Amino acid sequence: MEKHVTEGTIAGAVWAVCRAGERHVGNAGTFEMGAGSPMARDTIFRVASITKPVVAAAAMRLVETSILTLDGPVDELLPELANRRVLKSIESDLDDTVAADRPITLRDLLTMTFGLGAIMVFPEKYPIQAAMREAGVAPGPQLPTMSADEYMKRLGALPLAYQPGERFLYNNGLDVAGILISRATGKPLGAALSELIFEPLGMVDTGFHVPEEKLHRLPTLYGRDFQSGETVVVDGPRGRFSIRPQFESGAGGLVSTVDDYLAFARMMLNGGELNGVRLLERQTVTEMTRNQLTREQREHSDATWFMFNGHGGWGLGMSVAMTQGEPWVVPGRFGWDGGYGTSAYVDPQNDVIGLFFSQKMMDSPEPPQTYVDFWRSVYRAN
Known about the structure:
The protein has helices spanning about 1-5, 50-65, 105-110, 125-135, 150-155, 170-185, 190-200, 260-270, 280-290, 295-300, 370-380; strands at about 10-20, 20-30, 35-40, 45, 85, 95-100, 220-225, 230-235, 255, 275, 275-280, 310-315, 320, 335-340, 340-345, 350-360. It is built from 11 helices and 16 strands. It has an 8-stranded antiparallel β-sheet, with helices on both faces. A two-stranded antiparallel ribbon has the order 4-9. The longest helix has 14 residues, at about 50-65. By secondary structure, it is an alpha+beta fold. The protein has 2 domains: about 1-45 and about 190-380, DD-peptidase/beta-lactamase superfamily (Beta-lactamase, 3-Layer(aba) Sandwich), CATH 3.40.710; about 60-185, Methane Monooxygenase Hydroxylase, Chain G, domain 1. Helices cover about 30% and strands about 20% of the residues.
């Protein structure tokens, strides 16, 4: 990691590795490129899509208490998704539709098979892609900025690209799941997650924004300018994450520290329990961390980008490794990566948890070299 800092690949990073209960936390670099405060164990990062497993766990807590159902219709709480129309084909105009075969379920949302999400064709080719972009609900590095109700209104005005349960389309399902949690609990998503996940696990620095008194612990976020190839500032310490957002994104909106997220990961590794506090039943964690997709779904062009070269599947809110790939892609390993520079996985087979938090955005579907070097080092050390 020091080499990546010296070469200017990243400004800095913090990581944690836990094996058989033994923990190692390390850091390298600074809050800004070549300057600023040194990275520290309590640095707060924008964790992006590793938000998804946390939101899925909260949803499953509500399933366990019968507030939500995994396979029942979500229509009552999400009426915008009732009586859906579905495109006759992905090439169809928005009014060329048929009725949905069945209602949408929470399982559809958590497996991202409810019918809308990232259609992996670039540049845009299909009318539904343009419609999602114009409505402000297309997946991308910028999180939605409207209210949750407005998001559902805009999403509900669109036809589904595919029948519920038919295709894996990345991202939007977890934003909708977050709204479902909020409506089911009658609380903003952040407050619901605090009650369901953060407070029981002692995750004191995790939420949807960084309060004023902690802003000195939030580093600058960088990305790449695709025209010049230069590294540029995407978000500063007093930017998007310094204020409570109007939309609390269940797909990618959390901030956290390695110690906070390690508590969540340890709970999942321990089958739903941590330090005598049981959040989830063991069978619930088993259900969340098994592949839920068919082979056809995993091999569709919209999904292959997310399936670890054919070695991965998708559970409830997280990636699940199915066969051996790279040395660190071990069957049963679960977790996910975040586009703002984070990677978090649990490997029950080897009793390993690894977390890598940086502040450099991913700029391609391929994992950054920082991720690769981190995981290679973790498995060499083990």
